[in-house]
Write a structure and sequence with these properties.
two-stranded antiparallel sheet, about 60% helix, mainly alpha, single chain
């Protein structure tokens, strides 16, 4: 679920996060993406009034990032296993063809 959330945000350039408005927009996108995939993410402070902006809670980013890496690692392991299985099948087919 965390990987779904991260992937649903798409690519954004964080190099331009010098402007508060840009950071606020990125945080808004993060909050909306989390809501869309049903991920409860508390790392974004919502504006308290019309003049306020979205703000990050940096400590709240650690857990989802670690969880995403764990999910990604599991995907890598599964793909490696599939690859190994396919290589074995391919070798077996090659031997039959000889």
């Amino acid at each position: 679920m965390v990987m779904d959330w991260i992937c649903s945000m798409g690519c954004h350039s964080y190099n331009h996060c010098l402007l508060p408005e840009t950071c606020s927009l990125i945080l808004f996108i993060m909050g909306q993406a989390a809501k869309t995939v049903g991920y409860d993410f508390s790392g974004v402070d919502r504006p308290k009034n019309e003049n306020d902006m979205y703000g990050p809670r940096y400590a709240e980013f650690v857990v989802p990032l670690v969880k995403a890496i764990q999910e990604q690692q599991q995907m890598i392991i599964e793909l490696k296993n599939q690859n190994t299985d396919l290589q074995k099948r391919m070798l077996a087919l090659k031997k039959k063809m000889k």
